[in-house]
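Figure 2 data, in text form.
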Amino acid sequence: MLRGMATVNYFADDLEAAKDWYSEFLGVAPYFTVPGGYYEFRIGDYQAELGLINRKYAATTPDRPGGQIVNWHVDDVAATFERLLEMGAKEYEPITARGEGTGFVTAAVVDPFGNVLGIMTNPHYLEILAAARPE
């Protein structure tokens, strides 16, 4: 049974540039490093792990972004999407409401290193967070 996301890994040809870009976007430095090979950040309410791996260690090297999209919950999809674009990411999926009046909104970009980064406002995420943090 899947119990929750543990680590999402993104690959980069220029690992140092990727570390700097994600450090700026996330507002934190990586907490774990393997020089020349790997950087890992802990982020968000549940300290999910985002790993950056030197692309030379990738099993495959697709010629274009694609595949699964991991959507990270954000409080403001439009503002986050705009910030990512300002930082050099390219639109992959526009801001899209998912179901009329449900509150689910997604968007995705391709980071400057060729990885798809999804963002989402997810009411279910907020319900789970509220239940985990009783007042």
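Caption note: The two ends are 30 Å apart (CA to CA).
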